[in-house]
Amino acid sequence: MTARLIDGKAAAAALRQRIAAQVARVSDLGVVPGLAVVLVGEDPASQVYVRSKERLAREAGMVSIAHRLPPTTPEADLLDLIRRLNADPAIHGILVQLPVPKPLDERTIIGAIDPAKDVDGLHPVNVGNLSIGGEGLLPCTPSGCMMLLRDTLGADLSGLRALVIGRSNLMGKPMAQLLVRAHCTVTVAHSRTRDLADECRRADILVPAVGQPRMVRGDWIKPGATVIDVGMNRLAPEPGQEKGRLVGDVAFEEAVEVAGAITPVPGGVGPMTIACLLDNTLTAACRAEGLARPAVAA
Ligand SMILES: Nc1nc(=O)c2c([nH]1)NC[C@@H]1CN(c3ccc(C(=O)N[C@@H](CCC(=O)O)C(=O)O)cc3)C=[N+]21
């Protein structure tokens, strides 16, 4: 059996198109959603991501402003910028690209963002609302994973066994919360988990997010399971190549023979993350301006 491929690139393009149509409607009402992306330092991968966030936000009709700060930026300066963005009525969403260079403190920085503009969904108020089912902003990568799961399995995921590998604040923990909200039976595995392969074999939904290239092997996967691979690992370049290949946390060639459906890397979860960022920015703009989210045909 060969697994169905879950095309995150196409799903993200479709979502961005729906968002663009909604942005056009609210723009007619005088509200142009504004996104500020803050990048501290010169990490090349982060620069690439920030550029594509800027470009895709503009393509959706939003205003997108990147703030690039030197790696030695004092924390007080960064907090000052965040305060100005919090107060700027043209900015509805603020994202500080992570990780931030040392000695900047991620928690202090995220905590300084107005929760209503926290389009990463990482501020403690949004994290709390996620856990109690309130109306916050959801973290982008887990939201994107849920959309791909529902596209694949249908809206109702209740009763399915889900295994999330990884317990980060950015991904593992919020993913587990969303799966619980969707009435799955959820297990969170991590570096101290015993018999990870056995845990995997019980999962109808498998979501590895650890950053270990090809860690999940084909014979760890329950036949027919849905695999959402959140890993983004750049391998060492082959001789004669400039850049190494991008692979996930799953040994794709093995897994594709066993799973029912699987996301590729690249072209799976990654593009959905950015589309969900735009979705959050539109949500934040509508809430800030007291507008209902315009309806568009799906
Ligand atoms: N505050 C914050 N929020 C984030 O959401 C955030 C962050 N910091 N720091 C870094 C990670 C990483 N991330 C990705 C987004 C899109 C792709 C993506 O579109 N990937 C493409 C290909 C990328 C390539 O070829 O290099 C794909 O998977 O098909 C990847 C990674 C967001 N992150």
TrEMBL record:
Provide a Gene Ontology MF annotation, just one.
methylenetetrahydrofolate dehydrogenase (NADP+) activity
Q: Which Gene Ontology CC terms are recorded?
A: cytosol
Which biological process terms from the Gene Ontology are attached to this UniProt entry? Answer: L-histidine biosynthetic process; methionine biosynthetic process; purine nucleotide biosynthetic process; tetrahydrofolate interconversion
Q: Which UniProt keywords apply?
A: Amino-acid biosynthesis, Histidine biosynthesis, Hydrolase, Methionine biosynthesis, Multifunctional enzyme, NADP, One-carbon metabolism, Oxidoreductase, Purine biosynthesis
EC numbers, comma separated: 1.5.1.5, 3.5.4.9
**InterPro entries referenced in this protein's UniProt entry, alphabetically:** Aminoacid_DH-like_N_sf, NAD(P)-bd_dom_sf, THF_DH/CycHdrlase, THF_DH/CycHdrlase_cat_dom, THF_DH/CycHdrlase_CS, THF_DH/CycHdrlase_NAD-bd_dom
Q: What pathway is this protein a component of? A: One-carbon metabolism; tetrahydrofolate interconversion
Positions that bind NADP(+): G166, R167, S168
Q: Does the keyword Cell wall biogenesis/degradation apply?
A: no
Q: Which HAMAP family match?
A: THF_DHG_CYH
Kindly state the subunit structure of this protein: Homodimer.
Q: What is this protein called?
A: Bifunctional protein FolD
Gene name of this polypeptide: folD
